[in-house]
């Protein structure tokens, strides 16, 4: 299995292509620029099976509808954010962009935790709220990677001052769900470069009792 990071949309949000050797592909958080994403998929001869959303803030969903229609694939999201795709007030585009970024309702609503089987992919779904109430992380044990969305970043954590955010909840999510993964697990975040669980356990200032200024 391999993966590719593609920053997209107005904030350069990381979209990810997660690929099997047979060409099967999952698309995580297509935040915008559907044409750019489509060119990359064709270049890699990938066969998209689904769109997985870590959460539904506007910068993670901007290309959802175009990608869904082009490739005729379903969208997965946590049920707590089922209305965020269609509501620019909830997804933040109305506040931060001065306009509406929306998509149609998700095809599959996730709740609780467990295994998610899509084609030849098998992922573990973790609820990691705090940045948003329905934030999810997707873990591939076989590939040794976790798509953490805006929960955990290299040297930082997600902001919690947006509607539905909660700092204590986020810290708890990271400690209980992400830092319990093998230390060599690669963390693929919604913004910035990749990191590892070990690095964040050892050096992330937000997880070690103080904050960097």
TrEMBL record:
The lineage of its organism: Bacteria, Bacillati, Bacillota, Bacilli, Bacillales. Its cofactor is Zn(2+). This is MBL fold metallo-hydrolase. One of its GO terms (molecular function) is metal ion binding. Pfam families: Lactamase_B. Keywords: Hydrolase, Metal-binding, Zinc. Residues 12-191 form the Metallo-beta-lactamase domain. InterPro entries: MBL_Glyoxalase_II, Metallo-B-lactamas, RibonucZ/Hydroxyglut_hydro. It comes from Metabacillus lacus.
